[in-house]
Design goal:
394 residues, alpha+beta, 13 helices, 48% helix
Length: 394
């Protein structure tokens, strides 16, 4: 025989202050948990797009990122020795994408321009749009004869001054204005946080004579490890990385951040369990006579235990719902487009955090487990109460 659900629901509000405090503790845990999971999912989604094993990024020997790499023209020409690179069907020549990376400082839209971030400007040629197959133009491409750029969708949402018709000041003294003429997407990948322009024009703006990197795509039968070994061998002497490995290295700081945040959630979860346990011990202490009477009229210890666990789970779910609503409200108020700083690229990558149904379900499962664990010991104590002793002490 089970106790009615309404009985347990009414008991939650007998000690309102204790219940409310417990709900708030759980809500805080869930709010941080859902934000962290959303953040991790957004970063992983962005990096999964930039995870092609057949795309190789070539850097100067010893360089750790495109921003600190400089490949002279004569060293770039050595890449012509590679035989496993996809070819341009029109010319029959290997298709390489020489690129140059610089940064411009732009205001963040989320805080009204109070803070600035380094946004990558990539100089490219037409081959880049083939080698980087996930990049899709949304409108006009920049002209090779004019100072024009196109902007990644993620960058346009996160940073100011990147609307169609705006002028981005580029050059050593920021004295060369490039007009924004179009947008491009990259399936949410890191390149969607960049600004692209015509390579020779941008190199001229900075008096550059060397490339930052070279991107290439391998043929289906090529072994990336063998190609990288050839790139790093004595004949070429450059550094090669698969796109997946390159971006994994660029996000090491993010992994540390996620670890620290995860540890914080773990500590907060333990605190939530103790808060729930404290609440349920108080419930048992305050309802000793009531529990004894229930045992007297036929409810066994298992029913009492199950009822207290149910009450604990109800409290936990209330906290979970408030936590999810709080996270959703925060993303709505503060904006769900965020960016992170690369440890070696010195540029930012923008991405969007979403509170998905999967995250909400995961949060509800977590708080349910917290409720069960927190109520287990107080519930066992209540189930083992000696009826006569409890009635005398009450």
């Amino acid at each position: 025989m089970a106790l009615p659900l309404s009985y347990h629901w009414r008991n939650l509000f007998v000690r309102k202050n204790t219940t409310i405090l417990t709900v708030l503790v759980i809500a805080a845990v869930v709010g941080v948990f859902t934000w962290m999971i959303g953040f991790r999912g957004a970063v992983n989604q962005s990096l999964s797009v930039a995870g092609e094993e057949r795309k190789i990024i070539v850097l100067k020997k010893g360089a750790t990122a495109e921003s600190n790499s400089a490949i002279p023209i004569d060293e770039y020409n050595k890449l012509g020795q590679l035989n496993s690179v996809e070819k341009n069907p029109a010319t029959g020549q290997p298709r390489f994408s020489p690129e140059m990376i610089i940064q411009v400082s732009l205001p963040r839209l989320a805080d009204g321009g109070m803070t600035f971030a380094n946004v990558a400007v990539r100089g490219v040629t037409d081959d880049a749009f083939v080698v980087h197959s996930n990049v899709k133009e949304l409108g006009t491409r920049f002209s090779v004869a004019e100072r024009e750029v196109i902007v990644g969708v993620a960058a346009s949402k996160q940073f100011g001054g990147l609307n169609i018709g705006d002028i981005v000041n580029i050059g050593f003294g920021g004295d060369r204005g490039y007009k924004v003429v179009g947008y491009f997407s990259a399936d949410g990948g890191p390149m969607e946080s960049e600004i692209w322009g015509y390579l020779p024009s941008l190199m001229n703006a900075y008096n550059r004579t060397m490339y930052s990197s070279v991107s290439l795509r391998l043929t289906p039968d090529a072994d990336p490890k063998e190609v990288i070994a050839q790139i790093e061998g004595p004949a070429i002497q450059l550094t090669g990385k698969t796109e997946k490995d390159y971006w994994k290295e660029q996000t090491k700081l993010t992994q540390i951040y996620l670890f620290v945040t995860g540890a914080l959630v773990a500590v907060m979860s333990i605190a939530a369990v103790f808060a729930i346990a404290n609440t349920m011990y108080a419930v048992v202490a305050g309802r000793t006579r009531e529990i004894a009477m229930l045992r007297t009229i036929g409810f066994d210890g298992y029913t009492i235990l199950r009822g207290l666990i149910l009450e604990s789970v109800m409290v936990s779910l209330m906290g979970g719902i408030i936590g999810c609503l709080g996270c959703a409200a925060w993303l709505e108020i503060a904006g769900n487009t965020k960016d992170m700083f690369g440890a070696t690229t010195f540029t930012t990558m923008a991405f969007e955090i979403h509170l998905t149904p999967v995250i909400v379900v995961a949060a509800m499962i977590m708080v349910t487990l917290l409720g069960v664990v927190g109520a287990l010991m107080p519930g066992l104590r209540a189930a083992r109460l000696e009826v006569l002793t409890a009635l005398r002490e009450a």
